[in-house]
Design a protein that fits this description.
Layout (H helix, E strand, L loop, with lengths): L8 E5 L2 H11 L6 E5 L11 E6 L9 H14 E12 L6 E2 L2 E2 L5 H8 L3 E12 L5 E11 L5 H21 L1
Parallel strand pairs: 1-2, 3-4
Antiparallel strand pairs: 4-8, 5-6, 7-8
Length: 172
């Protein structure tokens, strides 16, 4: 990304060791990257992003509540008219990664999770060679964020309206 002229880059990863290793590989250019060590499901974005590129780990989100948490965080963090690029293994991919069980998704199931606020632009498939020389099909799904009011805010608004209606019914 630095080679392509991006100037404000944030990297989020759960492992401080991996972040430090990446910064060392970048050398002086590593100072141009804002690094954040965090569990994604607890991440509070410090800024709004034009492009959100999530290259891996989505397949580790095996529970629906974690997937929705991911969706709400991404939705709140991406600017209107911004982009989400999601990289993951799909249903014909591995059942484990780094020795851990993963969730196999389909292009349709991933899109269904995001279609309320994101429009899928395209899906690109490329071969991914693991450190053990195993080849898996890697999918990149490109989305355009078009929804003006984040779904998480609508959910809060609906909860407020329902609670107000219940309170009104009980007090009048």
């Amino acid at each position: 990304m630095l080679d392509n002229g991006y100037k404000i880059i944030y990297v989020l990863y759960i492992s401080a060791n991996v972040i430090e290793s990446a910064k060392q590989r970048l050398g002086e250019r590593g100072s141009k990257v804002q690094c954040i060590v965090s569990d994604f499901t607890k991440f509070i974005p410090p800024v709004d992003f034009d492009v959100w590129h999530y290259r891996s780990a989505f397949y580790f989100l095996k529970r629906e509540d974690k997937i929705y948490k991911y969706f709400f965080i991404a939705e709140d963090a991406i600017k209107k008219d911004g982009y989400l690029i999601l990289g993951t293994f799909l249903e014909n991919g591995p059942t484990k990664c780094s020795g851990l069980e993963i969730r196999q998704n389909s292009e349709a199931s991933i899109s269904a999770s995001f279609e309320i606020a994101f429009h899928r632009i395209k899906c690109v498939i490329e071969d991914h060679t693991t450190p053990f020389n195993t080849i898996f099909h890697w999918h990149y799904l490109f989305y355009f964020f078009y929804f003006f009011i984040p779904v998480s805010k609508i959910k809060l608004l609906l909860t407020y309206i329902i609670n107000l209606k219940l309170w009104t019914e009980n007090h009048f």
